[in-house]
Amino acid sequence: MTDFTVLPDHGLSWLEASGDHADIVLSTRVRLARNLQGHAFGPRARVNDREAVLKRFKDSAAQAPSLAGGTLIELPGVALRTRRILLERRLVTRDLLGDDETGPARGTAVHLSGHQPLTVMVNEEDHLRVQSLLSGLRIEEAWRLVDRLDEELGQEMPFAYHQEFGFLTSCPTNVGSGMRASVFMHLPGLVLTKEIGKVLQGLGQVGLTFRGLYGEGSEVVGNFFQVSNQTTLGKTEEDLVDHLDKVVRQVIQYELQARQVLLRDARGVTEDKIWRAYGLLRFARSLSFEELMNLLSGVRLGLSLKLLPGLRVYTLNKMMIFTQPAHLEEAAGRDLPPTESDAHRAAFVRRILAAEGEVSPDDAASDEGEPSDGS
Amino acid sequence: MTDFTVLPDHGLSWLEASGDHADIVLSTRVRLARNLQGHAFGPRARVNDREAVLKRFKDSAAQAPSLAGGTLIELPGVALRTRRILLERRLVTRDLLGDDETGPARGTAVHLSGHQPLTVMVNEEDHLRVQSLLSGLRIEEAWRLVDRLDEELGQEMPFAYHQEFGFLTSCPTNVGSGMRASVFMHLPGLVLTKEIGKVLQGLGQVGLTFRGLYGEGSEVVGNFFQVSNQTTLGKTEEDLVDHLDKVVRQVIQYELQARQVLLRDARGVTEDKIWRAYGLLRFARSLSFEELMNLLSGVRLGLSLKLLPGLRVYTLNKMMIFTQPAHLEEAAGRDLPPTESDAHRAAFVRRILAAEGEVSPDDAASDEGEPSDGS
Hints:
homodimer
């Protein structure tokens, strides 16, 4: 089994809650889809295509400074739980892993970088998916990282490119720049003020789209949204990056305004919601992942509003990842059926919050008068 | 306004959580209905009847050793909030107070005893309602206290008595002994195991009945039941007391068995329920009285099962009384509209629980393995 402890940051530097607006924007991801000339790609790629691609990638990766000090993990040799952990850390996609029964296809691999927040998936939907994942709102920086790695790899491997269309990809929606930039945002204010529908509709009108935590088809839980560009064709990467950055900053402003409305018009209800979420996280003995995400949403809002001064965003980010099933199983050293998983999840959350130090329920008392003991 | 602080125990010694099975049986109440010869009683009593009764009672009370050191409160002179406080403390009935608009009728009064847990309501449904209210399961003792006071008063006042029927009362259901003994019980085990219906049905078959916290017509909340004798005619008081005591002890055994079933078959769910209740009480910023009662039920069960070792039954009893609207208003020094009342209730609960000392969420860890930090 791959030993994740040898990876400097466990591939989780994106949790560190640095970067702009880290309380609202958890992370920024930019990925490029690339395919090699001379090999069938997408569903038409056969085993020998995939193996040739993997070999070419290995050779190129060895020459790419951005990937220095990293680890290439060939997935067919990796235990199921470790594969699930990679997925839960957002370092690979479900597509790359195949289904749990048959396991990953031959030639599938992921390169985890040593010093940079970069990963490369090999033989996913496209031959290569070059990805950067950073904490906070850092689209430009994330783009530069993948752009540099793209150039480094491109010097070693001829990418399939069409003069008119741009980079060719397995799915036509990725043709052109092959780039998707996405920002993982927490928008409880817009949800609670019921403004979210309007905002999401607006995203569609400016060529953006939204998804849940694990990308396409995954549900939105806990008011967490992934906002990304819809189109890849006919625009430069710089334009796409600029555009997404501009829109996301606008959404952040809407979110901040919505929070002010909550504090102005529904302060009591909002505070109650936040503290109840904290109380349940602090003491519950069984938590489903979905309930946890909803409670973390409340607590995260409380932290942003400075109502829960004892907590750090980093702690909340970490809880979100380490409370997923495979992570809990890894910590327990065994498989966990759902009810046990829920119990371990709750125990982990209690331990983390206890370590974070006691948050006094009256640290951030509301402006309302507090009655004294009635005795 | 009557100053309750001059009353030695605020009329609340029944909260002290002494007596048998104090975690399951909150309190025991025995009351006798008595009427004076020569005065119309019930709806036929006129103002001059009531005033004559009150005068006779005052004279007799002055001679009764059981009432020494007490206070007679004539209700028409008492402020609305104070009347509501008396009701919330279970020292008077809603009947005695009249409605909030017109207020108490002339001649209505309550005598709060100084040294004994005895009260006498004057000109309620009957001329006198002699009542004892004790902590825990102490039916025999409660009966002896009212019996002695009954004798003391009877020496001074001729009670309406019929050779064949016994004591005459305003409502025929009280004719005979005029006694109602009731026990206020917490039965979450029977509710959670769905055995409660059978037990309540069984009570009916042995001449007992059940009600909510505030007697006839009040709803059961938080799994709290008042169990009392249904009939008063044709049996001696001693028989009624013995019978109720025997049945209540049987119900306690059923409740204890149900709790063992919970621990055996649903330990995880039960613990989760208990700790969630504690977490919400500890941190919520708004609590309705009904929600509070339900949460107190969970916490009380946890305390009985020794899952919440840092708490005392006394604390939970006290919270139940002091979080009622009039008590909260008294503490705040002003009227409180419902949302404010809910906020003050939550603040009071937080303060009490904080004063009780921190209950660590892992003080009483379940037998299940607790996962270590997954990082």
